[in-house]
Amino acid sequence: MKKSLRLLSAVAVIASSALLAFNANAVQLRGSHKENHVACKSCHTQGMQHAGTTEGCLSCHQSYDAVRALTEKNHPDLEVNPHMDGHLGELDCTDCHHMHKASEVVCNECHQFDFVAP
Ligand code: HEC
Ligand code: HEC
Ligand code: HEC
Ligand code: HEC
Question: Of 37, 18, 29, 100, which is closest to residue 10 (Cα–Cα)?
Answer without folding.
Answer: 18
